[in-house]
Amino acid sequence: MAETRLPETTVENILEFYDEAPCGLLSTRPDGTIVAANDTLLAWTGRRRDQVLQRIRIQELLSIAGRVFWDKHLFPMLRMQGQMHEVALDLLEPEGRRIPVLLTGAAKLDADGAPVLFRFTILDATERRQFERDLLRARARAERSAESKAELVHMVGHDIRSALNGILGGAALLADTDLSDEQQEFLRFVQQAARTLLDLSDNVLRAGRIEAGGLVPEEREFDLRELVARSCDLLRPRAEEKGLSLTAETDPAIPDRLIGDPVKLGQVLGNLLGNAVKFTRVGSVRAEAWLAADLCDSVLLDFRVSDTGIGIAAERLHRIFEAFTQESYETGLEHGGAGLGLAICQRLLGLYGSRLEVESEPGRGTTFGFRLRLMKA
Question: Which CATH number covers residue 373?
Fold first, then answer.
């Protein structure tokens, strides 16, 4: 069968493509001596072909640090593995200017598997390196901006809390004076609005600390029964205003003293109880803590907060743990809030490797639960 030969013009086009490729192409002997290089690479390095071929090794095109890295790491790796992919190096021009490049190489092997030739593709990474620098600068600016915003939120949040506590204190004093029924109704409206804003400022400050990584679990001894009872007592006035029953039950088998972070656990219970009271018009709210397992030096506890409130539609359950999200737009309008409470609970529990679970039925109520492992005191 006659040998098929490519047309002369095709051979010339292949050679032209090699020399004018938009990337550098290079071939070396196993010792690194350059035996082939295209025009693109020669133009980058500012050298003529007769100055390169058979005269210098590939590492002589690199910066000093690149030569050391090549001899100590890259070349042994290339001989052993037979390839390398997008290694960042700097080529040197005769005048000393550096060109950042990405070097990809592969070995051509003989019949015995020994390398006889190394072929390299070299990409100019100048624009990529500049893009990475721009990204790093943008990230630094964003981080500085985020820090400034966090400081502003922290400062303003505490000022708002101080003012709201003053309003609530003044309202409490005013409630002890002789007021008409209409004035008492106005006062209750002021107190409710101030408490709502106080809760909102607490959640915003807490969310800011979590985002900034400023919250870590503390470990100290506390009484779980007292914590659950106190969490309910704080919400009892609101529940009584709405005519709701608010109860707590703690498993007698739970040890009297445990080790954990009562502040953060109290924040989780407080948020869950606060939501339960807020979204329940009639009926009851209940907090429970049960011993799930006794593990010698620690215990597994199941916590539940249930209510007989408005409930949550099944198709909306997956959204309620997102920050600034509520069950529906109408719910937000009617009950207020910023949709931060459940997101904060989820993140606080995440510090302990736990998470919130929810069961709900519209019109029948909602139950939130989580499991926590605490050390025995």
Answer: 3.30.565.10
Whether residue 226 is found in the same domain as residue 203: no
The answer to whether residue 370 sits within a structural domain is yes
- Of 198, 355, 199, 354, which is closest to residue 275 (Cα–Cα)? 199
In a domain, 135, yes or no: no
Number of compact structural domains in the chain: 3
**CA gap 253, 211 in Å, rounded:** 37
266's tokens? 């109290």
Closest-CA residue to 253 (of 300, 221, 314): 300
On the 0-12 / 13-18 / 19+ scale of CB atoms within 10 A, 174 is middle
Residue 212: closest CA among 281, 157, 249, 261:
157
Q: How many CB atoms lie within 10 A of CB 318?
A: 9
- Per-residue confidence band for 222, with pLDDT thresholds at 50, 70 and 90: very high
Quote the domain boundaries for residue 303: 218-377
Within 8 A by CB and 6+ apart from 235, the residues are: 246, 270, 273, 274, 277, 285
Distance CA 172, CA 189 (A): 13
d(CA 176, CA 43): 90
Q: Is residue 95 part of a domain?
A: yes
Average pLDDT (221-242) is 90
Q: First-to-last CA distance in the chain?
A: 90
pTM: 0.49
Q: Are 306 and 267 in contact (CB under 8 A)?
A: no
Strand, helix or coil at 363? Answer: coil
Beta strands in the chain (DSSP E): 24-28, 34-37, 83-92, 98-109, 115-124, 220-222, 245-250, 258-260, 284-294, 298-307, 357-361, 365-376
- Map tokens 């966090």 to a residue: 150
- Residues 206 and 161: their CA atoms lie apart, in Å, by 13
Q: Are residues 284 and 309 in the same domain?
A: yes
* pLDDT one-digit tens code per residue, 251-290: 999 998 999 988 889 888 988 998 899 889 999 999 999 9
Q: What is the SS3 assignment for 90?
A: strand
